[in-house]
Every structure is written in C-alpha cells, then in structure tokens.
Amino acid sequence: MNHSATALVAAHPKARRKGWLRYSTLRKLVPYFYVSPATLLLVLLMLFPMVMVFKYSLMDGAIMKKDAAFAGVQNYMTIFENPVFWQSVAQTLYFTIMSVVFHFIIGLAFALLLNTNRVDPLIRSILRVLFILPWLFTAVIIAIIWRLLLDPNGVVNSVLMALHIINFKVEWFSSTRTAIHALTFANIWAGYPLYMVSLLAGLQGISKELYEAAGIDGANGLQKFWYITIPQLMPIIISIALLDFIWTMQVFPLVWMTTGGGPIYSTEVLSTFTYKLAFSQYEFSLASASAMIILIISMSVTYFYIKHQQRR
Amino acid sequence: MAKRSFKSSLLPTILTYLGLAIGLVFSAFPIVWMFFSSLKSNTEIFALPPRLLPDDFTVAAYLTIFNDPVKVRFFINSYFVAGVVTALTLLVAIVTAYGFSRYQFRFKNTLNIFIISTQTVPPITLLIPYFGMVVAFRIFDTYLALILTYMVFTLPYAVLLMTGYLNTLPKELDEAVLVDGGSSWTALWRVIVPVSIPGIVATAVYTFLLAWNEFLFALTLTKSMDLRTVPIGIQLLMGQHAFEWNEMMAMSVLGSLPLLVLYLVAQRYFLAGMTAGSVKS
C-alpha cells in the first residue's frame, strides 16, 4: 500500500521538483483523486437535488412561480389531510408486502427445485436460464404482456372459464375489486428471479457436512431444511427482502402502464400519487412534500439494510 | 426394502419434475404468448378458444414497425442513450473502484455507505428537482438530460460491482508496475483493466440493462418524438392505438431483444450483476 503510493509520487517528477507539497501530503491525496469522479457526480445528481426537493417541499408554488414564498410545513399538512394519500399508503403497503412475501416463496421454491440432483443437469441448467427470463423484461413490457393475458377476452379468462373457476369475464385491471390484485400478481411474476438466483448461490455455498452431520443425528428432510438451510440462507434473505421492499415500494411504470392508479384510485400508490401531483396538477410543492415522505420511508429501511450489510 | 427405496427416490423425483414443469409454465408462458401474439393478425389475438400458435403466421406487425421512421427512432434513441450511459458509467466506475479497492483513506467507510444508500433513493424523489434543474439549465428534451440523470442510478451499481471484482485481483499485479517505477494510473490502465474484462463486461451488461429499461426520467425529461426511448414509445403507442395488439407485442419483442441476446451470450456476467446488491461486497 504505502509503497505503491510512494511509487506513484515518484512517477511524477514535476511534483518532486516543485516541492510545494510534501510527498506525504500528496500521497494522501491519491485515493481521493481516484474516488472523486463518482463522488462528485453523485453529490451533484443526488445530494444537491435532495436539498432542492426538500426546499421545494417547504415552499408555496415551487418551479411554477418565480417568487415562490416560504410555506413551512403547510404542504405536508395538506398531504396528510388528503384521504387519497392514505389510501395510496395502504395500497403501496399491500402491494409491497405481498410482492416481497411471494417473491421470496417462489424464489426459494425454484431455487430448491433447481438445486436438487434428482434432475438431469442439462435440464436443470436450461430451466435455470428460462426461470430468470421474467426479470429481463422492462416494466412497460411486463405491463403490456399482462394487459394482453388479463384482458376480459384474454387467455386467462378463457382458461378459468373453461375450468369453471369463474363464470363471467373478469375485467382484471378495470374493476376496483380486482385491479390491485392483478397488479400485484404481475409484479410477483416479474420479481422473483432476484431471490431465486441469490438463494441458489446461497444454497450452493452451504457445506454438505452440515447435512451429513444432521443426517447422522437422525434429522429428516424437513428438519434439515428448517434447522440448516433456512438459518444458513437468512443473511441473504434479509438483504434481498429489504432491498426488494425499498424498490417495490417505489414502483411506478408497472402501475402507470396497467391501471394508471385507477379505477377510482383503487391502485394508486405513493409514486403515482406524487407523479400526478407534479405532472398532472403542476403542484410541485405538494409533490415535493409527498416525494420527501417516500424518501424518508425508503431511507429508514435503507438504514436497516446498511446496518445488516455491515454486520455480515 | 425395494418398496421403500421406490418411495424415497422415485416419488420425490416425480414431484421435483412436476414442480419444475409448473415453474416453467409460470415463468415462460407469458413470454411465449407475447411472442406468438406478435405473429398473429389482430383479429386472431383474442380468438376463441385461445390458441397459442397462430393459424396464419404473419410478420406484418414487424414490417409496420420497420417501415415507420418514428418507431425505428425509438430504438436508435434507446441504443444511443444506453450505449453512452454505459460507456461513461464504466469510465467513472473503473477509476472509482480502483480507489476503493487499492487504498485506505479517511471517509472511505462513509463514502461507501453513501454509495450503497444511493441505490435505494426513490427515483420519484429525484424527478421533481431534476425537472426543475433540467428546465433551468435549458437541457429539457435533450439526450444530455437523460444521459446525465441516468448516471445517478447506474453509477452506484457499477462502482460496487467493479470494486467487488477488483478486490478479487491480487495486489501483486499492480504492485509489479509500481516497483518498476510506473504510476498507479499506469498500473490501472495497463495491468488492471486488461485482466478485469469479465468484471467490466458484467458491469457493462448490467448498466446497459438499467439504462435500457428506464422509464420515469425518459417520460418526464423529454417531450419530442425524436428523443423518445423504447419504453416511452411503447407507452405512447399503447395510448394511441390501444387495440393494435400484435404491433404492441412486436414492439415488446424487439424492445426485449437486446437484453435477451445479452443474457444468453453473457449469462454468468448477468447473474453477477443481478446479485451484486445482495451478495456481500
């Protein structure tokens, strides 16, 4: 380390000749030179905008008025008094929690199925490739696929009617009763591969000796799963579930492209609620307050995520 | 005994295959349905009873897209923006990752936490100030606005991925250059970069994917059809001709193609990118 930094300084004869900085000082600056491009960009594109959005949220008529006045917490009060906001909170939570739970269940099930040696290795590796596919599709395309499949005249209704599970054509995305569930289902379909891939990597990292030792002690398959597999996978599960929670909570394109938050707010989530405030109603100050609320929720979960990552 | 071994080996195997078959239908059916729908005529898409394969294969939907300069432009824009973002992100990420991987310095941990937490900042929160800034700097409706703002979510992943990769390379590699009197800058480009190609490919593929799929900023920071990317193009078509299902499906197939090809060609790199967030760095 030391010696590499010395060599870097030695390679700059000019620095040596000028001598306006001592080598040791210059040497200490080297790492900052390397990390500065990304740091500067992220400060410019992240910290500065965050200060801006916070400022907007305390103003009256941000962006729209040239001389927007300071409004204090008025915008936050207005948001909290809006029943649609609370409906969006509840729907965002439902959507997020259901997604995280089913992403995990499906991801784990697929990882376990792909990890057994009961199946021909070739089939296993082909399926591994195929099972990840949903993850590659962009939200807009996922939205379109499911709008086609869940169209009242679409294949899902046809199959369900042929099986006598339903007896009329359900308007999955345009009925207030079903829209949020259809949306959640589409998101579950799109998001499990992250869990699957990570858990599969985790499964392959568990030492075979643990299972052998448990086998000698007379543990059955279920016990091995519960007392070895799950605890061993726990750190990965927690990491991904926290990240998934944060990302799913911020969902926008999927909702925008399937239901647009409707019918009658029944699929409104925090991000569509905020987006509409800003870009349909041009209430940028209110939207900023709402965006700050989303940021605060995300950052509180991020806090646990980082604490968890650092402990690992 | 024989009965027992039958029970303990054949039944679980059958159940495993059954599970895999269900999994296959669940994961692949919607995609296969999309693909074949793009080869159907519009009247056939909702035919009853539903059939997977079209009666008359037709590539009419694809031809319509190829012959429409507006739609072709969506693809050019997406390739251009995602390509430039990937190149710039890689450049910045490689340099930064080298700093992270090879040096100890004050604020390193703070900076690391900062970069990790940038992954989780809601895009909608940044969107409003971006809109204000982009208008103020007069770059609304330009490639520059997209390229610059996309970097905010491609960079953190790229830095983390590249740092993780560089950490796996032995320090002796670059130290050899330093001993010979070269600078660490030379060591980075002459020695580290050439041996980091797998890590760079993983990062590039993942960055491209993020940029290709971006929706929210593209929707809000551009306005003219000349600048629209594929996701926004599809959204606009959806609004305009909501019932041209075969064309929508053909656009979706074409819009997914680069990612599918990248995935099939560079599968293990893809997985590296995908698990970057969850696997310990």
Automatic annotation (TrEMBL), chain A:
It comes from the Bacteria. Its main location: membrane. InterPro entries: MetI-like, MetI-like_sf. CDD domains: TM_PBP2 (cd06261). Keywords: Cell membrane, Membrane, Plasmid, Transmembrane, Transmembrane helix, Transport. The chain crosses the membrane at residues 32-54, 93-114, 126-149, 185-206, 226-247, 284-306. It is a multi-pass membrane protein. Residues 89-305 form the ABC transmembrane type-1 domain. Belongs to the binding-protein-dependent transport system permease family. PANTHER family: BLR7065 PROTEIN (PTHR43005), SPERMIDINE_PUTRESCINE TRANSPORT SYSTEM PERMEASE PROTEIN (PTHR43005:SF1). This is Sugar ABC transporter permease. It comes from Rhizobium indicum.
From TrEMBL, chain B:
This is Carbohydrate ABC transporter permease. It is found in: Cell membrane. Residues 75-266 form the ABC transmembrane type-1 domain. It comes from Rhizobium indicum. The chain crosses the membrane at residues 12-36, 79-101, 113-137, 143-166, 187-212, 248-266. The keyword Magnesium does not apply. Coiled coil: none annotated. The keyword Transmembrane helix applies. It comes from the Bacteria. InterPro entries: BP-dep_ABC_trans_perm, MetI-like, MetI-like_sf. It holds the Pfam family BPD_transp_1. Gene3D superfamilies: MetI-like. SUPFAM superfamilies: MetI-like (SSF161098). Its main location: membrane. It is a multi-pass membrane protein. Keywords: Cell membrane, Membrane, Plasmid, Transmembrane, Transmembrane helix, Transport. Belongs to the binding-protein-dependent transport system permease family.
